[in-house]
Write a structure and sequence with these properties.
binds potassium ion, 20 helices, metal-binding, binds ligand NPW, UDP-N-acetylmuramoyl-L-alanine:D-glutamate ligase, elongated
Length: 520
């Protein structure tokens, strides 16, 4: 399991460790790791052009010492001094080995208190920077740009001149290496208030910061490399974690020799309607291919006909809103919602499912119904909701943009406010439940952003719930397996480059599960 921390947690651990070591030891360790990462990223160090963006704190200190190490190996190193102060030891060391500096305070006095919103065009002092020939040449001609503007000490939107430097580095052909965290990304949450550095590589020290795993921060971080500085024993229990393949393999329901279909878990699916049938076919497909012992599907006649045609292994029943799921037979968990509609009949059906005493996964139209009638989610058995940002926004009465901007906050808030487990879909899927670390899933692929993949995910998680996993475990394992199957469908476990359809993800599930469980 990978663990991730907030800035405060890292800082507290660093204090304890620092008190036991000679001064400067941690920065030396960090800078050495950073220099090694830069060497690996460069085709050749000797003669390469390295530009350091230096802020006023220790993040800049790391970059200066690493720059000095690169200069000693023959790189041409230029430090752009952007802060009101500069780390003295680092600067002296860089100068000692022939590194050069360019002090921005000499060319402009930008409004340092103004946050620059992403996308706004530069004006005034920022404009003067953007057209400064020296700066344009340095940044435009760099083989590698080392972002040492701010690290875990950063707060709020990047101020000038940092914001302009972040924007300029995005236009450079050089490799951008972020020191500890891309400047402008909130290291604790992944939130980005204004301009932020877009790194190809982030070299992070001591432990992974949660904001590097969660979008929008995650998409600014590029490849992550962690440098051990000896912090491990001093870190607290993490607030954010990520499951690895072996973690998921260990948790997934197993088919034991004495298993029969009832022992492996019976999942009920209430999805689709006479008008919409595709979502039902995909949700049932997810459940069937993820290894449910038996899938009971209950819906209107047209949806039942389509599901039977595609998945003959499902036991189907045509139901009416009045009778609900009373006569469907015993299940260990329900999946409720995809394509079921949102009218009064759908509401009655949802009520009959949510009245049951087994775990229920609520997705899609089920979430729309719950938005209108929150009492649907008040139940004694566990509930898992699987919204995308828009659905969660409606449930919480918050604009979708705010959900996207503050994913970690809103996933936690929803879990607390609604008393359910929340799987918030997106490029970095989050699973939140009160009293537990938020789980971030990293196996997704941009190709997953296509219609119907959420229905497949609901089916997978439903199968895992029926197999005996808790909402928290079922959601995080399902997100992992779903993302892995999508990657494999798109061309390979590391992510291919072919478009995929939702059904491809369902069909790929056995292969994905096989790659996970082969080593268990
Ligand atoms: N502690 C350790 O043991 C180790 C720490 N290490 C390293 O130290 C880093 C943390 O260093 P840190 O604490 O000096 O903070 P850091 O991130 O460099 O900058 C903070 C300064 O930036 C500014 N600033 C803030 N927000 C801003 C904004 N939005 N826009 C513009 N400016 C902004 C503000 O300064 P001011 O406004 O006064 O100029 C603030 O004081 C850490 O990430 C890691 O790289 C490693 O060496 C390993 C050992
Ligand atoms: K940085």
């Amino acid at each position: 399991m990978l663990t991730a921390y907030t800035s405060d947690e890292i800082r507290a651990a660093e204090q304890v460790l620092m008190a036991r070591l000679p001064g400067g030891t941690l920065m030396r360790r960090a800078a050495t790791g950073l220099a090694v990462a830069c060497v690996k990223a460069l085709p050749r160090v000797y003669g390469s052009r390295v530009v350091l963006l230096i802020g006023s704190g220790d993040n800049g200190g790391d970059a200066l010492y690493a720059g000095a190490a690169l200069a000693r190996r023959g790189a041409r190193v230029h430090a752009i001094l952007a802060g009101a102060r500069t780390h003295e030891g680092g600067l002296a060391e860089l100068r000692r080995v022939g590194g050069r500096t360019y002090d921005l305070r000499g060319i402009s006095d930008p409004a340092r208190t103004e946050g620059a919103k992403a996308g706004t065009s530069a004006s005034g002092p920022a404009k003067a920077l953007e057209t400064d020939p020296m700066l344009v040449n340095l940044i435009g001609g760099a083989d590698v740009i080392v972002d040492g503007l701010v690290g875990i000490g950063g707060t709020g939107a990047l101020r000038e001149p940092y914001a302009t430097l972040a924007r300029m580095s995005a236009g450079s052909p050089g490799i951008v290496v972020a020191v500890d965290v891309p400047s402008g990304v909130d290291a604790s949450t992944g939130e980005v208030e204004g301009e932020a550095v877009r790194a190809h590589l982030t070299v992070t020290f001591g432990a992974v910061k949660a904001g590097l795993l969660i979008d929008p921060g995650a998409s600014h971080a590029g490849t992550l490399r962690q440098v051990d500085i000896g912090l491990g024993p001093f870190l607290p229990a993490p607030g954010v974690v990520t499951l690895t393949g072996p973690d998921v393999a260990e948790r997934m329901p197993r088919a034991e020799p004495e298993s029969n279909k009832y022992r492996r878990g019976v999942v009920g699916v209430v999805a689709g309607s006479d008008r919409f049938t595709g979502a039902a076919v995909l949700a049932v497909g997810g459940a069937v291919r993820a290894g449910a012992g038996l899938v009971r599907f209950a819906s209107a006649a047209e949806a039942v006909q389509q599901v039977r045609a595609k998945w003959p292994e499902a036991v189907t029943k045509i139901i009416t809103p009045e009778e609900g799921v009373r006569e469907v037979g015993r299940v260990q968990a329900w999946v409720l919602g995809p394509g079921m509609g949102t009218d009064d009949d759908a509401h009655a059906l949802a009520r009959s499912v949510l009245d049951s005493d087994v775990p229920v996964l609520v997705d899609a139209d089920g979430l729309t119904l719950a938005t209108r009638d929150r009492s649907l989610l008040r139940r004694s058995a566990p509930t898992l909701i699987t919204p995308h940002a828009g659905e969660l926004g409606r449930l919480l009465g918050v604009p979708v943009e705010e959900i996207e901007e503050r994913r970690l906050h809103h996933a936690r808030l929803a879990a607390a406010e609604l008393g359910v487990t929340v799987l918030l879909k997106g490029s970095t899927t989050l699973v939140a439940e009160e009293g537990r670390p938020v789980r971030v899933n990293l196996t997704g692929t941009p190709w997953l952003a296509t219609g119907g993949t959420g229905d497949v995910l609901a089916g997978i998680a439903g199968a895992f719930l029926a197999g005996g996993l808790s909402c928290y475990e079922a959601a995080s394992c399902a997100a992992f397996v779903h993302g892995l199957a999508a990657r494999m469908a798109a061309g390979g476990p590391e992510g291919g480059q072919a478009p995929i359809a939702a059904l491809d993800v369902a069909l790929e599930l056995p292969s994905a599960i096989r790659t996970l469980t082969a080593s268990r």
